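[Meeting: bench + compute handoff]

Bench side (C.D.) handed over the final construct sequence. Compute side (W.E.) agreed to return the predicted structure before the next meeting so the bench team could plan truncations. Sequence as handed over:
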Amino acid sequence: MNEKQEKTRFAILGGVVGFLFLVFVYQLMLIQIAEGEAYADQANRGYTATQSIPAARGEIVDRYGRPFTTNRIGFDIILDRAFLPTAKQNQVIGDLIGQMEEMGQAWIDNLPITGDEPFAFADGKETEVARLKSHLGVAEYASAQECFSWLAERYGLGTYDPRTGLCTLLGRNKEVVGTWDAVTARKLIGVRYEMEQRSFSLRNTYTFAQDVGTSCATIIAELGYRLPGVSVVQSTVREFVEGDLAPHIIGVTGPIYSDEMKELREEGKLYTAENPRGYRGNELIGKFGIEKKYEDQLRGTEGVRTISLDSKGSVVGVEETVPPTPGSTVVLTLDKNLQRAGQDGLENTIKDLQTKTTVNAGMHANAGAVVAVEVKTGEILAMATYPSYDNATYYQDYDALNQQKPEPLLNRATMGTYRPGSTYKPAMAVAGLSEGVITPGETIFCGGVYTRFSDYHPRCLYVNGNINVVGALQVSCNIFFYETGYRLGIQRQNEYSAHFGLGSKTGIELPELPGQLSSPATQAAAGLTWSDGNIVQSAIGQLDHLFTPVQMAGYIATLANNGQRMQLHLTKSIKSYSFEETLEEIQPTVVDRVPAPPEVWPVVREGMTKATLPGGTSYWYWTGFPLPVASKTGTPEASGDNLDSCYICYIPADDPQIAIAVVIEKGGQGYTGAPVARAIAEEYFFGSSDVEDVAEVGTLLP
């Protein structure tokens, strides 16, 4: 390369460098002079974040607008990540705990570790302990002391030494930065653990204490200068008007924990910029019952608060950009008065049986359920189970309730399955008459023993002589229905039972078991061989038949409705929070029809009506009742030597309006459930009809 070329090359390179330098200078001048003010403003403005503003949860009311749940204004103490210095979290929380202790106020602490050394897992908290260990990723055999030690390090409290009872935090040069005694550390860990479970972040505030008193709220608010990130906010508090009324149906709300967060995330229901309707970690959610079933309608739409922060993270402005919208009101088909009558009737009857009867008459009775249905619509008017509990103290009582026997948390009306016993006989009467294997005038001889088989002789409680289907229903003759069932065979028995809705889910709004019908398959599943004897036992509601009380209520309502089976349901409508608009209305729906000729139903009705007249199986329990009652008793075999009590009826027999099914575990005799049914009937036909101001007296909400 000659000298001239080399000079040319350097000149070009110098020109390029000079040009780039001029561009750089130009851009620098543009930023500093022409657009300097805009960039400075952007730097000072920093960024924005949003927080949710809770919406009032919709209420749950009965068919007349009388509330099961209400909302009232309360005060919560919250921690706000936007104002809480990260490096001082433990200090601020510790100061807040100290203030709460001085006022004798409680705060949220669900850590399943005892509060004093030596640390142990809290009794009755197996589920919570498993969640804790899963959260920490430790082995199942990890001790409470070990979990406490790991949590102390996790939340910046340092190393726990059980010998000194201290948690010590060291700095980079191994100097002691801070120390906490174990009890104080346990309190801090309890709050920090719950904050983590509730996904505390800039977007999600954390509720430290709920529904505190006015004086507490005032003091904490006044101490705001000492407690950065701590605020007192107004909130709506869920209350139960009568917490012990229909608790299994109404359900409760509770905080969203990390495992539920995972499910919501998988379902695409968590908050994001693209899904502002999604859940945030500080919300409550329906846990079971109607609160869970209608979570989307009850929840409402949260508002949005926009927080502006400068480049240093300091808050420079707060604005409510979207106001909250309250949730909808769920109107149930339940009648609070009938629900109370059913609950009290069930409890009082069981307690009377325990104290006033013998073993065979129900002395060991200890649990049960009752369901009342409006015949023409399928609306459930009452659904009670015993023993029960109070939703208002559900969380406080949970550990004790979870260990109690019989289980008060079990909704026996939907999740308990029972043999129906002789309450199954009306279905067999319908099937036998419809299929022509018996006729209304035909008599079958009852000598007390069924003699069709040479090696199997099931018995009847009485010697009834020649008896027809009406008489057999009146006195509950086993021999008549052994023979009817044998002539039908198990396949036709089950076909008619299925039309009545027996052995399958009803489709109501709560979790339920399907139950089952006796069949060769059920016997095979138990390792047994099917025989003709099984056919006749099935015909009187024994063997493998297992039905829920709500199924039995649907069955008796279908009998009352001449074979037209209505969809059972607990929800009548969904209304706006103010009741001004009906958003959804549940219409009566026919789901099946029993294939029986019209002339069959009066015959069966006559036999069931005579069961409540002199000589009938439940006559004495309806003495003096002014309306005709069609009924059937059942005394199925239960565990051991115990007998359950099953009772079904509809009223009035000549124009059915209400159908009732009662089951009493270890009730001894089928008629022992009759007083429960009568308590509901007395209230339905002759009780009070008072309603709250939310609706006019006697006005049924659509």
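W.E. noted at the follow-up: The chain has two domains: 78-233, 336-686. C.D. will use this when planning the next construct.
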